[in-house]
Amino acid sequence: MKKIHLSPLAGMPLIEYLKQKGFEICFTQALASVAEPVAHHPDLLLCKLGIDDKAPVFHGDVSRLGPAYPADIPYNACCTGRYFIHNLKYTASELLAASKQAAQHRKKPLLCVSVPQGYTKCNIVCVDEESIITSDAGIEKACSSAGMSVLKIRPGQVLLPGYAYGFLGGTSGRIGDKIVFNGDLSAHPDFNVISAFIESRGLSCVYFKDYPLTDIGSIIVEPDSDGCSVTSDF
Fold it and tell me: For the chain, which residues make up each domain, given as ranges?
């Protein structure tokens, strides 16, 4: 059975949706070494090494995380399978090595893109191998220059209790041919362009009007594996 790594703070409609799709939900245990508002965010410790459901997930070392930037970002990269996007100055060497190994297994070159934003995955919706959505100008510039298709949206519009706002990437995850969002994407002022961008790639959006868009540290699918590491089964 495939697993979903998810914050226990995710909305119940999202949780029920994932259960109905047959996923085993692994709630992320609190990471004591990072700031409390993001302590349950799986994308601070886990990094999916590709875009499709079968792509492996890298599990980081909890002891390497710290409460202040940049000690909390060594694993917060976005890996589409073709592109590895992060502030490479702070990337954990073992994560980068694993990403390159996964790319070799798929017989595809991995192109590394360094961006100023250390909270990279937080600020990226991974659409496909070549396409992303972000509100960060630095990510947009670097990824566009690398040949990616980038949709730049307005910042904010996403809740993250404890901070002024969260990031759309942190509300999202790709599951099969759907990009799933934690909350009401239709309330985002850029909803029309976001949905059109995703649908133009042959994908569809799933979102829940019951509650506001809320950053939960991404929705991470892991293929069949033993155990949930620092997560707990549900």
Answer: 3-226
